[in-house]
Recover the amino acids of this structure.
């Protein structure tokens, strides 16, 4: 009885003599690591710069909101004054109408 073939075994590719040198592989790995660390430093520096820019934008936004709040407070005071004047005129008109009746 013959067994059925279910899979092909593929051998790993053979390394050439230069790739088998452990020192070369280590040097290549260290070079790649140095490049990755340099890229990481650049990314962190750009991130910090972005945070500084964001801080400035948020501070500007805070100042704008403070000015807006001050404007609303002034407007609120003016509306309160107008309301007081309107109530005084209403009372005066009621008094005039009551005296003519």
């Amino acid at each position: 009885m013959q067994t059925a073939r279910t899979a092909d075994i593929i051998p790993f590719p053979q390394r050439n003599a230069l790739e088998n040198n452990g020192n070369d592989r280590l040097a290549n790995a260290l070079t790649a690591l140095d490049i990755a660390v340099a890229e990481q430093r650049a990314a962190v520096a750009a991130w910090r710069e972005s945070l500084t820019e964001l801080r400035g934008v948020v501070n500007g936004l805070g100042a704008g909101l403070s000015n807006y709040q001050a404007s609303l407070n002034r407007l609120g005071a003016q509306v309160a004054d107008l309301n007081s004047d309107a109530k005084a005129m209403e009372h005066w008109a009621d008094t005039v109408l009551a005296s003519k009746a």
